[in-house]
Amino acid sequence: MAKAGEAGLSERQGVQIARALADPRRYEILTQIGAHDGPMSCRALLALHDVSAATMSHHLKELEGAELIAVERDGKSMLLKVRRKMLKAYTRRLNKI
Amino acid sequence: MAKAGEAGLSERQGVQIARALADPRRYEILTQIGAHDGPMSCRALLALHDVSAATMSHHLKELEGAELIAVERDGKSMLLKVRRKMLKAYTRRLNKI
DNA sequence: ATGACACTTCGATAAGTGTCTAATTGTTTT
DNA sequence: AAAACAATTAGACACTTATCGAAGTGTCAT
Description:
Chain A is α+β, with helices and mostly antiparallel strands. Helices cover 55% and strands 12% of the residues of chain A. Chain A has a two-stranded antiparallel ribbon with strand order 1-2. In chain A, helix 1 (11-21) runs antiparallel to helix 4.
């Protein structure tokens, strides 16, 4: 019996993750959230990318939609964390090819 | 061009692989080549997809450009194989996030 | 050589996407 | 309440891409 965390991704999830990872900026954003010490804010990411807040918001929504990041809100700020279990599930799928 | 072994992927390779995997049809093509017993031909793939030969050619070029498949020619036919080392290198990169 | 087969290339098109500015919503501070 | 701050939404634009049909290239069979 497989553990909950090892369940396979749905078709839709697979596609959404692949799409989310396909944009270089989004990939970079993901690595930056991952490398950050503790949850990262949208503001902190904006300091690292020369794009408008609207564009950043769009990218974060894609990453959240793909469930590659977890988003919490703390007052005005966002708290962003990488969902590594999701990444792991995705790579497991790729390695089955 | 970097080898797929233990060496990391270049930035360009990472982006190209992610993009290649982001189209559902291309992902399916890749799994079908992988599931096939021995090298697969373009013709065999065309039997599985309702697209023109031109479109299939385009997708195979993307997969080849990303180095996700190896392409050999045998007379009229193509011989397609999955380059699993490349997939492995890509998943290794993702799991480092 | 002629024709059939297996792709490939070209030009076009419709749909998708990354980006912006401007306007909006929600939250904290004064 | 008003101003400031953080993020979102809406609408627009430029660029990319999945797709096609048609014409081209290389290979095998007759």
